[in-house]
From TrEMBL:
Signal peptide: none annotated. Residues 407-529 form the Integral membrane bound transporter domain. The keyword Transmembrane helix applies. This is FUSC family protein. Pfam families: FUSC_2. The chain crosses the membrane at residues 42-61, 73-90, 96-114, 147-166, 398-422, 442-459, 464-481, 516-534. Belongs to the YccS/YhfK family. It comes from Micromonospora zamorensis. It is found in: Cell membrane. It is a multi-pass membrane protein. Its main location: membrane. Keywords: Cell membrane, Membrane, Transmembrane, Transmembrane helix. InterPro entries: Memb_transporter_dom (IPR049453). Coiled coil: none annotated.
Amino acid sequence: MLATSLLGRLRRRDPGDAILRRAARLTIVASVVFYGCRYGAGSPMLATYGLFGTIAAGSFAQLPGPAPQRARILVLSLPGVWALIVAGSLLAWSTWAAAGGMLVIGFVVAFAGVGNPRLVGLASAFQLFYILASFPPYQPGTLPQRLGGVTFAIVLLAAAEVVLWPDPVPVSYRQRLTQAADGVAALLDATADGLTHPHAGPGDRDARRERAYDVVAAIELGRNPPEWAPTAAGVQDRALRICAAALREVLVEADRLVTDAPPEPAGDLAAAGLLRSCADTTRAAGRSLAPGAPAVLIDGLDTAVGRAETAYPVGEGDGRDTSDVPRLCRDATALALADQVRVFAVGARVATGARLHGEDATSGLFEYARHSPWRLYWWQFRSHLAPRSAHLHSSIRLAVALALARVAAGVLHLTHGFWVLLATLTVLRTSASDTRTALRPAVLGTIAGAAVSGGLMVVVDQPVVYAVVLPVTLMLAFGVGRLLGPVWQQALFTLLLTVVFAQLSPEGWRLAEVRLVDVLLGAVIGVLVGVAMWPRGAAHDLRHNATRYLAANADAVEQTVQALLGDAPSPDRALDRVRRRMILIDSSYCQYQFERHDPHRQQVNWSAILSAGHHVVPGAESLLRRNPPGCLAGWPAAAVLLRDSAGHLRSAYEALADEVAHGRPAGPTPLPTGCAAELDRIRPALGEADPRSVRHLVEVDRWLAGLADTLARIHPPAQGDSAGRRGQP
């Protein structure tokens, strides 16, 4: 009954047997490598590096992609592994030399992930290769054995990834984007029908709307595994992030069009035709992300946009009639939606490797696509060499902790000082609270494992027994222990190390004592460094970066309005500032996802705050393309209206930034407004303006209203509020 209960518990925690399958694969490879090197070749050195190479690459490394891709990454990482082992072996002659190398290499390896956070999964494994080689005995002559053992292990593990029970390939981020594009396209078709047939049953449109929100929510970075999320600095990952942001904005604009649908049939509106073209382009762009699919063509959308723009300022009246301005509101929203669809389509082309041409190649949003990957990575590194970079903080913290642990192990002449650094690496987290949380299972598990191991070493002193039980302990440590929890995992890992070293260098029951002392020392160092250096982790940096990010958005909005009124030049520098600060807040947010959050502190809708810049930047670019700087110059009534709206938005951004920084409730947030409410604001300013100027005013005002909607999504209206009719992405 106990065995049945335990098996049921394991299956519930590992429904697809992914962890047990991975543990079985690792057990087979580690056993073959260790037995072949220790007993076949008769070399403890070869066996040590072979076994720990298997454990580091197979357990500590979290690699992205399907099995063939993971195998390729393992093989391609070999030169880096060799370099780390050579460096560690050559610096092992002195404690201080090894510690200095640990400080430099620890930082470089950790900080290298800033260009591609998915490579962070390799960082812990790379740290282990240097750590293992940097301890005495100082034997440069054994380098061939060390490199040979690790190479044998990694190559065999790469082959096993493909051959032995390969993991099923999960739904990729590109596939999720395709599903989201199909859902949004279906909603756009229904919205177009609603504009021309407003009395049609809303049931189908509501169902499509609900599905669209569900599939768009699935492309949030926080809802995808880190190894699959597009968080790298490269061209394709940047393009995928832009695609996701554009789809969210398309969904918001479609919701706004539903709200502004005419009460009576309006005939064949230009907006409806444009929406149908947007739906076709969105669907085609999403499907173009599949491997081998043809690139999406944007000519049809451009033709539809041009047709809509031609019909845009022309109505039954001269642009000042109350029957014409509502149409201008709807057409402005449809054109804003089409701009976001175009951003999505261009982003899909970039993500699939197609070259940009024409105005797309000069757009600030896709300017990065003209640069080499090395330049993009350098920009990413440079952006994170900043005092408020969460990634910089965590890299320095880890490097200092490992260097101190290496000094302590060398000064105290610990026989297995490797375990001190391994414990520090295991315990140390990006915040002090997470470090304290990891401390308890590490200590309790090590005590339990040391007690069992010590008793086992007293009773059994035959190495052949430990050779027989090695596969069992491997399976327990990396399969069962991981499923049962951190305490069990640490205890079973301690038992595994006892079984291994009983065959490499038998020391009796004192091996368990040494293991316990080393882990306790490493845990203490990790806790002390975690408390002393940036203890609040990414949460504090995220709040600070979000404050500066919101301030940059407010500046960009205000300068864009001033440029349209002819009071300032083009806001290119302000928009660039938003893009640069977006890099830091993205990094802080990714790290924040893996930290424990204070339940007593006010929680923030971070995904909505991140989307604020994605609305400002492409929206301002599109706005300035159709409404050149100075297009509203000489219209005092429009200037008063727009400056008032921009001032209210700036106050809302500042209030939100103050709330994010200090946890205080924000001031009044602008409520989302429909076309009818905006007409009441615009009508007094119309006067004797010409139709084209009315068009410019309507479009700028709708953009500002969209930004107010973004802020309203950060603070959703209370239940029953008139604005509550809109879904929150």
